[in-house]
Amino acid sequence: MVSPGQQGGKSAFPSRPSSLRTVQARLARALREDWDYRKGRIFGSMCTQPLPWAERLAQPFATANTGNPGLCPGTVRLEEELMAWLLDLFHAPSFGAGGTVVTGGTEGNITALWIARNVSGLREVVVPRSAHFSVAKALDLLSLKPRWAKTSPDGVVRVEEVRRLVSSRTAAVIAMAGSTELGAVDPIPELSEWLEPRGVRLHVDAAFGGFILPFLREIKGTDLPFDFKLPGVTSLSVDPHKMGGAPIPSGALLLRNWEEAQSIMTDSPYLSTPRSIGLFGTRPSRNVASTYAAIAMMGRTGYVRQLRRALQLTHRIAEEGRRLGIPAVREPSLNLVVLQHPNPQQVQLEMLRRGWDISAIREPRGLRFVVMPHVTAASVKEMLIDLTTVVRSKRRQRFPS
Length: 401
Hints:
Strand order of the largest sheet: 1-7-6-5-4-2-3
Helix content: 25-40%
Largest sheet: 7 strands, mixed
Oligomer: single chain
Mean pLDDT: 93
Order of helices and strands: HHHEHEHEHEHEHEEEEHEHEEH
Number of helices: 11
Distance between the termini: 34 Å
Low-confidence stretches: none
Strand content: 5-15%
């Protein structure tokens, strides 16, 4: 959100139509000021350049609204097919499970906790300290009380903490499948095993890891269980606009028991269906079409190939970090690595001056690199040259910690 003051002055609403050339020029100027994923210099974002054909194929769907499904039955069937793919990918049961396209992890997490509150009638949520900030938004919007669970030094929630915090007032427990800061995957099998017999809901935030974890077995020979294969997992959110290749915004919320979605339905008598589900009344069909196109064009082999390359580059950054004396906080299991550094903000600022976007995190102190599909071997090599120069320079200057 931007206020007029932030824009640097007042601008009057247009009194007359502008020419196409004028509008094109203004938009082009704005675009030139934005960072471009295609240059391979963005290491601080979990978003990426989408598959170009996914954008193009979805453009004709821009005017359709799946919030009024009677007007777009073809897109509704497309969404049903897309949900079937995702439910299969995440090992949902054959009967009773369901899902819906959302705008991303924030909407997915808010909706999951909305359902948890309404189904359980309870108002406490056990949340790992590593949770995405969207969970804090959900707690505030839904008047839910957080019980914050401590994490280990490598960023995973402590199971004993969850056990201590769960009570008869617990509506749900949140678990991370690829945390935003460290790329950590919580011990979801242990959480599932303990929560399921107690009837406590377990929501998995797989916004980042959802299009990574299912493909690890082909690369590493092992996997990290996190989805509906575990009987305690009741809901899962995932962002295809991250490693899935779909344009922004694209997300999905999946439920083990789709009937629970009835708990958040509202009357919509003037639309083509009498009841509406979800946070938004207007649901852009373009999200459905672009996500469908991206997954169809990638397939499992495409995602495995993409992930193998990203992991190789991630480990290359980790190896260079060890050589520089700034080892990784944790051995990267996903395509994200954090290198320990006493003054990450100083390094981040200097790298920004050199044209690199990297993240600095405070706890633990470190430099965060996310190796998304737009990152190339060439851009990693060039970035590491600058990183080596900056780290050694800062070390000589002996900045205080």
